[in-house]
Amino acid sequence: MTRKGVIWIAIYLLAAMAPLAVLLAGQMPPSKGFWWDFSIALGFAGMGMMGIQFALTSRFKIATRAFGIDIVYLFHRYLAIIALAVVLAHFAIFWFFHPDALGDLDPRTARTELTLGRAALLLFGLAVVTSEFRKLLRLEYGLWRYAHVAFATLGFAAAIGHIVGVGYYIEAPGKRALWLSVTLFWALAVVWVRILKPWSQLRHPYRVIEVRPERDNTWTLALEPSGHDGLSRFMPGQFAWLTLRCSPFLLREHPFSIVSAPERLPRIEFGIKELGDFTATIGGVKPGEIAYLDGPYGVFSVDRNQDARGFVGIVGGIGITPLLSMLRSLAERSDHRPVWLFYGSNSWDTVVYREEIEKLKKCLNLTVVYILEKPPDGWDGETGHLDAQMLERHLPKRGRDELRYFLCGPVPMTNAAEKGLHALGVPASRIQTEIFELV
Ligand SMILES: Cc1cc2nc3c(=O)[nH]c(=O)nc-3n(C[C@H](O)[C@H](O)[C@H](O)COP(=O)(O)OP(=O)(O)OC[C@H]3O[C@@H](n4cnc5c(N)ncnc54)[C@H](O)[C@@H]3O)c2cc1C
Q1: Are 160 and 211 in a shared domain?
Q2: Whose CA is nearest to atom 6 of ligand 1?
Q3: Domain span at residue 35?
Q4: What's the pLDDT band for 50 if we cut at 50, 70, 90?
Q5: 404: CATH
Q6: What is the mean pLDDT of residues 403-408?
Q7: 438: Cβ below 6 Å to ligand 1?
Q8: Looking at the structure, do residues 212 and 144 belong to the same domain, yes or no?
């Protein structure tokens, strides 16, 4: 892990522990025994972890740069489960050891601040369960996202109401001030991501300038900034969240890798494959329509690996988009370091952007290995699925650990690629994988 990564984890731990520090600062109320104190500590720690969840999904570029946003989202996901377990333990300990303190459980007659605590627990539980089992529950992505924001924000507000209502542990004026600043920080994270960011997007719209059909139900969507300069730069391989046909306030955005090269800015292109409700509408988008972008994000880029002696892309299907951006950019820069591209596809007809890739071979030091599941008659290239032997056949025997490897495609393919590269002795630190599914 990089030094920046370690610093950000330390900042994270400090921020998550801030409520606990509020509890421990200054004079403490008299102890009511180990389990009581332990449970209170768990409650505050769980609250800190829940609060930091807002910051994790706020897409602060500076904070996500060290890991990549997909890793941050993964962290968000697993941390939520741990935080829920901690808050549940807070409640369960009272239930077992101090049931009297829980009072009446009927919300109509119970003390409001205790009902708020239980409501927070329920809402956090709903936020986690609906996320973990979204597909099983057949929750449509957009609907889930609205519900997720509602559960998390209401749960957090209820938890604050619970802590302030119980009051006992934040009574001293110093503690109140500290608690207020911690709460304010969380509230600002919500305001930033839900109001300020969409507002900024609204003020910096893009216009669709071209919608072009590609192979395999894929569309190239080209945008240019409208009334502003657009992005000043991005790294080839990065992605952005795209909103079409609605306001950025509506949380209907979708992440797509930028397929064009940064050298072609202010024009930005995406290669979008029809896969579901939103992507199926791209073909019907008309030039002139307004779009909004939030980006660039991501660390999947040759630009983060300037020291590499060469690059290897291992992609399947629409996973070609970030690699094509890198290839286009290397061509623009006349970068002649060797590049190997292993490109898995169903058939020769479904190899998206294949004509351009063939052209790029002429100006790059590029070797392309197409791997077709259903090859046409007379095909003498690779067939089936990628494996270690295939990599062995095409990669140079020496200097494999001086290359950088970029994997993007269906999970079975990226798993097979990682396994194959390990078998070839490529260190894990040289391999990067882009996940096209964030949750
Ligand atoms: C970093 C990254 C880069 C990507 N780059 C590309 C690309 O270059 N080209 C391309 O065609 N696809 C890309 N995708 C995938 C693309 O975002 C999804 O295919 C698209 O959002 C699906 O939306 P849908 O409504 O058409 O499909 P649905 O059938 O509604 O959704 C299919 C699945 O896609 C996921 N999904 C849906 N909506 C969203 C959303 N708003 N945000 C995140 N995930 C969502 C969900 O897991 C869902 O189950 C990328 C994804 C990520 C995370």
Answers
A1: no
A2: 256
A3: 3-201
A4: confident
A5: 3.40.50.80
A6: 96
A7: yes
A8: no
Minimum CA distance residue for ligand 1 atom 34 = 437
**What's the pLDDT tens digit per position in 98-137?**
998 888 888 888 999 999 999 999 999 999 999 999 999 9
In terms of domains, do 150 and 251 share one? no
Q: Assess if residue 439 is contained within a domain.
A: no
State the total domains in the chain: 3
- pLDDT at residue 342 tops 90: yes
Which of 147, 171, 201 finishes a domain? Answer: 201
Please tell me if the CB atom of residue 321 comes closer than 6 angstroms to any atom of ligand 1.
yes
Please give the radius of gyration of the chain, using alpha carbons only, rounded to the nearest integer: 25
Of 278, 297, 316, the residue that ends a domain is 297
242, 270, 278, 297, best to mutate for ligand 1 pocket (most atoms within 8 Å of CB): 278
Work out which ligand 1 atom sits closest to the CA atom of 439: 47
- Among 64, 84, 60, 85, smallest CA distance to 74 is for 64
Residue percentage of the chain with pLDDT more than 90: 64
CATH number at residue 182: 1.20.120.1770
Q: pLDDT tier at 438 (50, 70, 90 boundaries)? A: low
Task: Tell me if 252 CB under 6 Å of ligand 1.
Answer: no
Kindly report the pTM of this predicted structure.
Answer: 0.87
Task: Tell whether 49 and 167 lie within a shared domain.
Answer: yes
219-260 residue pLDDT tens:
999 999 999 999 999 999 999 999 999 999 988 899 999 999
